[in-house]
Amino acid sequence: MDARTTQTDIAGMATIARPRDAVVAQDIQLAAARARDEAVSRGITEAFTSVGHALRALTTMMASIGARARAERELRGLTDRELADIGLTRGDIPAVLANDVAPAARPGADRAPMGNFARAA
């Protein structure tokens, strides 16, 4: 190169010197890198989402176990008369805790209230 060659001339020569195949290969490499980065990002997002769902299910299960234990403790603490007032017997407690018995399916669940709650027509 002689001293009369400018920086613009040098830049022009560099683009001319690159073969078209090299440009295409570089474009393919960049596209592959973008696709890989997007796939990795999606995978990480899905993994954290799955962990979040699992933690939410675990906390819900733990809360329901605590609520069930509390309900069982309270029902077992009632007298037979108190259980009868709400339409239950001691034998109904496991089914009530398991949500197997609908209120209308229990015998006597449809009878009118007794005592101070009954009104004359």
How many beta strands in the DSSP annotation?
0
User: Total helix count?
Assistant: 4
Q: Which stretches of 5+ consecutive residues score pLDDT under 50?
A: 112-121
Overall spatial form: rod-shaped
Explain this structure to me?
The chain is an all-alpha fold and 121 residues long. The protein has a domain at 12-62. Helix content is 66%, strand content 0%. It has helices at residues 7-17, 20-77, 80-85, 93-97. The longest helix is centred in the middle third of the chain and has 58 residues, at 20-77. The N and C termini lie far apart (116 Å). Mean pLDDT is 79; it is low at 112-121.
Question: What is this structure, in a nutshell?
Answer:
With 121 residues, the chain is mostly helical. It has a domain at 12-62. It is built from 4 helices and no strands.
Sequence-ordered SSE layout with sheet pairings:
Layout: H1 7-17, H2 20-77, H3 80-85, H4 93-97
Considering the chains and any ligands shown, give keywords for the structure.
121 residues; mainly alpha; 4 helices; rod-shaped
